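ingest -> validate -> predict -> emit
validate: passed (alphabet ok, no gaps, 137 aa)
predict: started
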Amino acid sequence: MVYGHVLGATNWSWSFGDGTNSTARSPYHVFNEAGAYTVTQTVVGPGGRDSNDLVVVVDAAPGALRFDPTRLALADGAFTMQLQGASGLNPVVLFASTNLVDWRTISTNQPLTSPLQLADPQAGEFPRRFYRAAETR
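emit:
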């Protein structure tokens, strides 16, 4: 995330580099295609105006691998999830992060037929975690 350097900012605007924009302070955005996008945040406040750019690289278009929201479960401190869209030909790796920056591999499934079950055995350790999965080639 990009942060402007204006104390007491009262207005925010975001350009995501894919033709979409937002005026939310902390927006959520999904890129629909692979590529490199320049995300620009502009903040305005009593102290002036400031803009910052950040290049976001999307490795693969969303939809190739996706979590099945009807198959998420938290039991005995382990968070399990079912993944759809895997080819079944390559290992699938589940990554977790507590801050959307420091991703670490927490589970690897060898090639199997879809759907795949992945688990984070330490889900109970942190109040909030983020997950992503990738089919390795």
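The radius of gyration is 18 Å.
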